[in-house]
Amino acid sequence: MMMLNLSAALGLLAFIPITVNASPAITNNCIELLVPVPVKATNIEYDIPRVHDTISAVNWAVNVTTWSNKNYAARIIRNVTISQTFNIHAKLCVPSVATSKSSTIQLLTAGNGFDKRYWDVEVNPSKYNYIDAAISKGYSVLAYDKLGCGKSDKPDGYTMVQVPSEVEILASLTRIVRSGKLLSASEILSNIKSTELLKKFNVRPKKVLQIGHSYGSVLIQALLAKYGDELADGAILTGFLVSSQATANNVAHFDHDYAAESDSSRFGRYGPGYIVLVKATLQKLFFRGTSAGFEKKLLDYTEKIKQPETVGVYGSEGTLSFSPAAGYSGPVMTMAGEFDYPLCNGDCKGAYEANYTMGLFPAGTNNFTFHLVPETGHALTLAKSAAETAQKMLDYLEDNGL
Ligand SMILES: *[C@@H]1O[C@H](CO)[C@@H](O)[C@H](O)[C@H]1NC(C)=O
Ligand SMILES: *[C@@H]1O[C@H](CO)[C@@H](O)[C@H](O)[C@H]1NC(C)=O
Ligand SMILES: *[C@@H]1O[C@H](CO)[C@@H](O)[C@H](O)[C@H]1NC(C)=O
Ligand SMILES: *[C@@H]1O[C@H](CO)[C@@H](O)[C@H](O)[C@H]1NC(C)=O
């Protein structure tokens, strides 16, 4: 029997000419964290039907959209003060090789119906995975599960998970990241030696970029309006635009099941007020109606990773009024798919309210840019155009010195 002598083998290798790339490929290193995030916010209790099974979920959607019924502003019962700490699940990824950009961290906030995997697509990652694309340019990335989805806490679906509390979660999480104390504040869920942890992952970011999709972009706009330059050096709001067709579709057009009943093995832990989109709706809402812009396996993947949403979020979106982010002076790019159904009723050309959207970022120094992604629906990272979209985003950051 032949024994392989390791040192001999290594010695042999030493004489084999090895082609070394001038710059080694940058791959990602990731760890998972549970971050206790302290939050103070004022949410609202709305007079809306209770949702505890699929019949009552449909009843809710019809009730809140019937034209002659009260709008959300007229349904306000009282303020609900939130003052507590939520456990937020996050994934921190850093480049394998330190770069000039590794002290710039991209904080990724997904939209309604998705957890952080929206940015971390496991199907054909070289094409669809935004985290990989950002890391390969040298950035560090923190993606998190919003409150009420993924592996984060899932509190009461009526009054706890709403725009105000989610804006404050993002604010609080950003402060922890900016302070350089993310690791010490968190429970480290990945199995990693503490020396390696500190060596690789102790990110002390000089810059924080807020990157969102859809509802995540809405949260970021509200964050910038409230906190200005304090919590962002740059922002990209995808799946975000103000359109003349924006109200043409409403929640009743997007069928939801009661989450716990629709799939008890996946969503059994979700309580009252949590609903989840049915598969046909995922296609309508996130992809183009035609299959020209997407691959079927990505629709199947979306069904696999879809996340519950709360009726509280819909209520708080119903009383949300955008305020201009007057105190924010960093760069802002907004982008949307050309054939976005929920934002533009299927066609954003001519429906885009450019000057209204620009008006949300009035500082004048922020190099506001809007990009319409051709042949694409609402879910940009899941469309055939995903790689070009990621490139466009990263180019914008680069061009703006970020
Ligand atoms: C809609 O829901 C509200 C709040 O639960 C209830 O007061 C109202 O009667 C409902 N309206 C209809 C038409 O079901
Ligand atoms: C609810 O809170 C808002 C601020 O978030 C405040 O303007 C409003 O007066 C409060 N309403 C009540 C009834 O306390
Ligand atoms: C742009 O904004 C101005 C002032 O707010 C408004 O009068 C005008 O109609 C808007 N233009 C478009 C194309 O929406
Ligand atoms: C604004 O952004 C564009 C890219 O969209 C870039 O080419 C340009 O240099 C930026 N302008 C400034 C003043 O940074």
TrEMBL record:
Q: Which InterPro entries match?
A: AB_hydrolase_1 (IPR000073), AB_hydrolase_fold (IPR029058)
Pfam families listed in its UniProt record = Abhydrolase_6 (PF12697)
Signal peptide annotation = 1-22
**Could you confirm whether the keyword Ribosomal protein appears in this record?**
no
Instruction: Give any GO molecular function from the UniProt entry.
Output: hydrolase activity
Q: Which residues form the AB hydrolase-1 domain?
A: 108-382
Q: Which organism is it from?
A: Rhypophila decipiens
Identify the keywords attached in UniProt to this record, alphabetized. Hydrolase, Signal
Protein name in the entry? Alpha/Beta hydrolase protein
